Amino acid sequence: MDRTGVTTETPKSPWGSVTPAAPACSLADVMSEQLARQLEEENNTFPTLTEPGSDLLLSDETSDTTSDLMLAQMLQMQFDREFDDQLRREEKKFNGDSKVSISFENYRMVHPYEDSDSSEDEVDWQDTRHDPYRAEKPQTTPRKGFTGKGKNITTKHDEVMCGRKNTARMDNFAPEVHVGDGLGMDLKLSNQVFNSLKQHCYSEQRRSSRLHEKKEHSTAEQAVDPRTRLLMYKMVNAGVLEHINGCISTGKESVVFHADGGSLEEQPVPDEVVLKVFKTTLNEFKNRDRYIKDDYRFIDRFSKLNPRKIIRLWAEKEMHNLTRMKKAEIPCPEVVLLKKHILVMSFIGKDHVPAPKLKDAKLGSEDMKNAYYQVLHMMQQLFQECNLVHADLSEYNMLWHEGKVWLIDVSQSVEPTHPHGLEFLFRDCRNVSTFFQKRGVSEAMSVYDLFNAVTGLNIPVGAEEEAEFVAEIVALEKRNEDHVQRRGKKTFPLSSEDGGPPLKPDADD
């Protein structure tokens, strides 16, 4: 109401009702209320902690917080746990979905008294800082060679001092030599014992180095050394091979892998091929030198090569033998490529399944009889047309595929002019005759008749004494060797018109 007595209304605010102002209070009251609110919030926050180790920090019943050392250990433990949690998150982020993961466990901040399942009496770790027999500072002998005076004099040759020094020197041994810690023990090693241990460690290091080098430069069973693996990868990169599928056969001298063929500029590559990798370990070839060192085709090169390169000579020798057999149309693998000690050949089989060996083939009586005549014909071709002796012919080196017998593994094959060529042939005849006779082939000839049928020498059998028969063979080889030495030639053509040795017994005088 104004002075005139007229009542007037207060205009409404467009922003709504006005909040009444707070009652005025002193600055001391405001400060005390804020402090009380802050303290109340802090008190409500501490009990709701869910972080690991919070019970250790806040529990007054289980921990004695009056000790500064205990508080420091608890705080350090909490800090380390937070660090480990962060480390696990970094590890998870770093690895992601990768199949190969990297662990950061070695960087964890784990205390020896944390998460220990051992009892109080057993401690899984040892603090070597308090070893009573460990010298705090390196003890050096003065120039004069002794310490002390009078009766207390100690020279550098003192038994106790030398023994403790030798014990301390064991820490310098190689990491793979476990010498123990000797904590709490006054160990004293004499010079003789220490020198023996040192020499033993040195010998073990050299031996382990030799074994490692041998493993890196050798081809073991179903595995290849890095150099051989690199050669195989180069074949794939060059397009000669599409894929290397795996090992299909292992032997004393080689490992055979199956692969899918690629292409070559000079010749087509079959769809399926095999890689015959000759083992680069020399142990398997030490007893087989006679197959190659007396072969007149390789005798000059054999004497000039180091032992490891001789293995490449074996691969080359098999390649030449297979080439001769292929020209004579003898069923055998076809050579595709030779690269050092790796020989690539056509695959005898179908759809990654190798043809069975003759000893494993399930053949009827007619098929077995047919196989025998095939083997007889191939032996005659091998000797008369290819001028070769298989030297390891048996049911293990013959395959049965598509109704035919295939010959494999001819790296040891030699010419008949070899000093032991006819002896090898006689052994082949014995293996073939024995196998087919055991399989019930009545037409199978005896070893003597088979030898004469292959060679055409017609050595008299007589009483069929093997010793006499072998003696005739050795005498014939001796005469052939003398003929070779007189002529001074090391290789001989196939035809007898070119001056080859007369492989026939002398006429009876």
Automatic annotation (TrEMBL):
Subcellular compartments:
Cytoplasm
| Classification lineage | Eukaryota, Metazoa, Chordata, Craniata, Vertebrata
The prosthetic group or cofactor this protein requires is: Mg(2+)
> What are its GO biological-process terms?
defense response to virus; innate immune response; ribosome biogenesis
Q: Name one GO molecular function term.
A: protein serine kinase activity
Question: What catalytic reaction does the record list?
Answer: L-threonyl-[protein] + ATP = O-phospho-L-threonyl-[protein] + ADP + H(+); L-seryl-[protein] + ATP = O-phospho-L-seryl-[protein] + ADP + H(+)
Subunit structure comment from the entry: Interacts with CASP10. Interacts with IRF3; RIOK3 probably mediates the interaction of TBK1 with IRF3. Associated with 40S pre-ribosomal particles.
Pfam families per the UniProt record, alphabetical: RIO1
Protein name, entry field: Serine/threonine-protein kinase RIO3
UniProt source species? Seriola dumerili (Greater amberjack)
Q: Which UniProt keywords apply?
A: Antiviral defense, ATP-binding, Cytoplasm, Immunity, Innate immunity, Kinase, Magnesium, Metal-binding, Nucleotide-binding, Phosphoprotein, Ribosome biogenesis, Serine/threonine-protein kinase, Transferase
